[in-house]
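Sat 14:20. Reprocessing the chain from the morning session after the first attempt stalled halfway. Input below, unchanged.
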Amino acid sequence: MTSRPTLVVGAGQAGISLVAELRALGDKRPVVLVGDEDEPPYERPPLSKGYLRGEHNRSSLTLRDAAWCAEHGVELVTGDAVVSIERGDEGGLALTRSGRHLDFDRLALTTGASEAALPVDGAELDRVLTLRTVRDADLLAAALRDSRDVVVVGGGFIGLEVAASARLLGATVTVVEAADRLLARSVTPVLSDFYLAAHERRGTRVLLGTTAVRIHGTADRAEAVVLDDGRELRADLVVVGIGALPRTDLAAAMGLEVEPRGIVVDRRALTSDGATVAAGDCTVGPNPFTRGRPGRLRLESVAHATDQARVAAATLLGHDTAYASVPWFWSDQGDLRLQIAGLPHGADQLVIRGELGSESFSLLSYREGLLIAIEAVGASADYVVVKRALERGMTVPANLAADPSIPLRRGLQTAVTGTSDPPNNPPPSAPRS
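Finished this time. Tokens:
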């Protein structure tokens, strides 16, 4: 057996999940886990929520610390980055930014994603911030403490979570979204309308169908955001949350197949060379959801990163395992908890259980009579039933689901599948949590 290590490039959720799964499956060969941040692997979802508001300390974010890595034979390299990789049939060699050479037998790419920059004049000013890393969150938390007027550019999950946190901290907040509805990439229009009203009830101003074209400032400090219709929004802090870009540079330089949405993988998390695996936010692959539309899909969530990484670990060990998990997500926006299971894209029927105004309801999406997703706000019981039903190949008839007096669990039936949307019509990227 070779003594050369397994190299895992990227020490985020997917990277540490892959390493932990290798050990859980009994693999004892050495592992080198390389992360470009100075931190051990940590959770990202709290960064826009409790951590940003000062409700969690830094240590509470840690997934696996240096002591765990040492105990499990994992060399954790932080504050360095792999800049080039050469590999052949029998392993390869990687070079890091610091000049370190890493010989390896097996290779996993869990390089994650980076937050997209706003391509306008003034985006380089101080107090124009993005949120992806714990360092970003520290900078943003400090800025929020003395900000009165906050403009959030982007009405996706990160933007709305930050907006809610900023409002809870007492700031005046305006969200600027280019699309005609909030969360347009990820949720049904009914849910978009609900979140628009809910954020406005909490004092956040939301501008839809509007883009930022310039940021004014003096002495390198942002002071106003100029919109495409000529209006100016006063701002002593601008937060940009317009999407995440998969980090594919290493894969492309290796000659692996990549596309704008990520490193292309198959159901086993194998890349195009048939040897390297990849997992997490950096990948695009077959839709793992059997009731989803066919075609490649990019998912951004903790659940996806964890589940795909486990499959990647099994693939490295020669196990025949396929990624076939039901996608699920969550988003805490202030006091509103959203839970999603399945993918609502392509639905032809929507059932509303509960009253939207009560802020406790669930939306069930159907396609050709088959339950394909739930979006639950303050309705965890419905969410749990549907998530389990989707995992077990079951459904709930729409007419029963529409009656709020009937618990969803009483309507569970074995699903009759066999229909799908036409191929070559892939769904958009799904949300992150």
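The longest helix spans residues 302-316.
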